[in-house]
Amino acid sequence: MLNNNHIEIIKSTIPLLESAGPALTQHFYQRMFSHNPELKDIFNMTHQKTGRQSVALFEAVAAYAKNIENLGALATAVERIAHKHTSFNIKAEHYQIVGHHLIETLRELAPEAFTKEVEEAWTEAYLFLAQIFIDREEELYQLREKATGGWRGTRRFVVSEKRPESELVMSFVLTPEDGGKVLDYQVGQYLGIQVTPSKADNVEIRQYSLSQAPNGSHYRISVKKEGKGTEQQGLVSHYLHDEVEVGHAVDVLPPAGDFFYQESGKPVVLISAGVGCTPMQAMLQKLAEENKTDPVTYLHACENELQHSFIDEVETIVAAKGWQQNVWYRSPVNLDGSNNSSVGLMDLAQIKDTLPIHFGEFYTCGPVAFMENVVKQLEALGVGRDRIHYEVFGPHANL
């Protein structure tokens, strides 16, 4: 059991962790995959090759050590990670494997500093945190399994429709192979998709935002074709775009995610860039279905009109409801201003007088750099952080 002595020892090892940096977690992953190669079918191997996952894990370990006396500060991160873990079907036994390799990594990289007391403290600290995740994830698993249309683990779905939404984004409508109902979800959440690409050595799992409001019968995800389709970038998205056709089956994990729309009875502003429009599309549909009477504003930025997804879908909803829309194209092809479009990067100061700065709720999704800029702009205009909600793709990051 974690006690005060353990906590003091953990705190004393923070300088050691910081001096090791991401090299610590790189060693950990190399060790774990060498001894337990079956885990390559669970972890995102693209993030392993780019180093993103090693950096994310190191930051998580360091944050835990620094907040060992105030775990409440990590509550948001724990909830986000727990949801992500369920979309990979992480099980309790996986924590045992990870814990073993984490302790052995510390022993191998810092043999002199890793005394018996330090080993005991870190073992107890890891077991304590692992149990928090195991308990929360089991709650999520059971909640989804028992709900109407729910399931646990993977379920076979068939691609019933495949439709391009823009130059780089393709929508896939997924219908359950067993003909049953599908689990409801909060708009803004994502699906875990498990496939084995022709160019991959392992099973690959990716998360894609649900891009339409729930309907009880099928799901829609909209996937951007990333990179060059190599192991470093875009392996799964290229496979889905180029090889998965109508009638093909994929394994799907239940909807998950801690980023979703919550009704507050206030005006709403949806802000996205690029493929970050996918969860916003689900929110926009849901708000329209529920006939939200408070003002709704939809703001989007992308490279040009050819890469602007859901143009007609959004225009139909916005026009029917009399809602506000503004679009920014960095390099437009043929700007006509039909959707209140402007040239350049999103500049909220241009439209500040039309935004509910002092009482609205703001939801944003897109590349991290974009969201960082949006948050800074909103704060500069007077929007409190408690009214700014965001989604981050890939390994967890804080804005």
Automatic annotation (TrEMBL):
Heme b binds at residue 85. Binds 1 heme b (iron(II)-protoporphyrin IX) group per subunit. Its EC number is 1.14.12.17. It holds the Pfam family FAD_binding_6. The keyword Transport applies. It comes from the Bacteria. InterPro entries: Cbr1-like_FAD-bd_dom, FAD-bd_FR_type, Flavoprot_Pyr_Nucl_cyt_Rdtase, FNR_nucleotide-bd, Globin, Globin-like_sf, Globin/Proto, Hmp. Its cofactor is heme b; FAD. One of its GO terms (molecular function) is heme binding. The record marks 84, 391 as: Influences the redox potential of the prosthetic heme and FAD groups. The active site is at 95 (charge relay system), 137 (charge relay system). Residues 149-399 are annotated as: Reductase. CDD domains: flavohem_like_fad_nad_binding, HmpEc-globin-like. The record marks 29 as: Involved in heme-bound ligand stabilization and O-O bond activation. Residues 1-138 form the Globin domain. Residues 152-262 form the FAD-binding FR-type domain. Gene3D superfamilies: Globins (1.10.490.10), Nucleotide-binding domain of ferredoxin-NADP reductase (FNR) module (3.40.50.80), Translation factors (2.40.30.10). Keywords: Detoxification, Dioxygenase, FAD, Flavoprotein, Heme, Iron, Metal-binding, NAD, NADP, Oxidoreductase, Oxygen transport, Transport. Consists of two distinct domains; an N-terminal heme-containing oxygen-binding domain and a C-terminal reductase domain with binding sites for FAD and NAD(P)H. In the C-terminal section; belongs to the flavoprotein pyridine nucleotide cytochrome reductase family. HAMAP family: Hmp. This is Flavohemoprotein. The lineage of its organism: Bacteria, Pseudomonadati, Pseudomonadota, Gammaproteobacteria, Vibrionales.
